[in-house]
Amino acid sequence: MDDTVRLGMFGAWRGSAYLREIASRDRDEIRIVAVCDKQADKLERAQGLEDARLFPDFDSFLEYGRSVGMNAVFLANYFHQHAPFAIRAMEAGMDVVSECTAAATLKECVELVRCVERTGRKYMLAENYPFSTRNMEMKRIVEGGTLGSLLYAEGEYNHSGTLEDLRELTPFRYHWRAWMPRTYYVTHAMGPLMYLTGSMPKYVSARAAHSALLEEIRDFRPNDDGMARMFCEMDNGMTASFTGCTAQASDYSRYRLVGDRGSVELGYADHADEVRLFYEEYTKPAGVTERDVYLKPDLDYWGEAAKEALNHGHGGGDYWIVQNLVDYFARGKVPFFDVYKGVAMSATAILGWRSCLNHGENFRIPDFSREEERRLVESDDLTPFPDENGAGATLPPSTRYGKY
User: How would you label 317-327 residue by residue, b for 16+ Cβ within 10 Å and e otherwise?
Assistant: First the structure.
């Protein structure tokens, strides 16, 4: 039986790093057969891929894919438009890997989960930050049990840029970046905490802070909050605090886990390739001599693949996403970020924004594995994102515009 993953890439700009990653793999394991992007200059990034056909529209892309046995689609299109295209791909008989976020509304969360269950297709989220080498070292420490009962976790994703950079990344008035509230890009801050602790969010409350600096580009970016911080009660009993994508002047993304016997963290410039492990004198495990130590990741714990991953993007995360994709689609090994965890993060972002607009009101995250809970939000299509003509947005993109 041929178990080669024949993949189509939708979105050549965001997908370009993965195009290179996949092109470096064994073609009997995974190969790119088609690339789709409506912008010709972006599609040029895929020129030269062996045997890959290029398409400017999704319907032709899917039609060709069916004719050549394309069995999976990698979604790297606009941030807020993944769910509708994921559904179309699964209904066409293809498995789906979605980059960045699963859905932009609670209604889409429901529709996506129902489609996975109805079609029986495989779906995974390509959240790569949890699989950086340093985060995997934190995971190793958590699995060792020496931190005791986990009490709280912190995640901070920083991705600042010059105002000129932001203008370049927002090429037209109704581009999604111009209207995305600060809670929505939550996966890089929240995803590692879920992976490291094996937990899911139950409730969320949040607050946003306005940025005077971003007022200077309000003419093309109305979302001029500088950051939002979310607070979650998790299903393992701990609390978690994390940002969306912040615009603050900070140097590193940071993660921290605190238990009742020890803590572990990363994100310090002087120790960029290490994690900090700390115990009190009276909580040190047997055989441990130092209570405060910086550790290099133990690559042997994760096998030879961990050493290879160091040569790949996002601290090794890009390598593991493709490996998880192959293991899942070709061999049936279910990854951590399945559709239920994907929509849980999307719902946290969506409801976190409503909390910001309601002075920190607490919102319950639906359990999307339960149909009775899905029915409660199946018509909830509130969104801050306008269409390409500027219509359709039903929520403000910034707390400056008022409350919900």
Answer: bbbbbbbbbbe
Sign for the pseudo-dihedral over CA of 305, 307, 312, 315 = positive
- 117 and 134 housed in the same domain: no
Query: Model confidence over 320-340: pLDDT tens digits?
Result: 999 999 999 999 999 999 999
Task: Say if residue 179 is in the same domain as residue 285.
Answer: yes
The C-alpha atoms of residue 314 and residue 135 are separated, in whole angstroms, by 11
Cβ 199 vs Cβ 235: under 8 Å: yes
CA distances from 184 to 66, 83, 369 (A): 33, 15, 22
Q: Which residue type is seen at 157?
A: Y
Closest CA to 335 of 133, 157, 130, 137: 130
Same domain, 111 and 177: no
Same-domain check for residues 46 and 159: no
In 3D space, the residue among 372, 353, 390 whose CA is nearest the CA of residue 104 turns out to be 353
Which tens digits make up the pLDDT trace of 83-111? Answer: 999 999 999 999 999 998 999 999 999 99
Whole-angstrom distance, CA of residue 81 vs CA of residue 2: 32
CA-derived radius of gyration, the chain: 21
Q: Which candidate, 402, 396, 403, 15, places its Cα nearest to that of 178?
A: 396
Domain match, 348 and 246 both: yes
What is the span of the domain harbouring residue 68?
A: 5-128
Residue 246 sits in the same domain as residue 219: yes
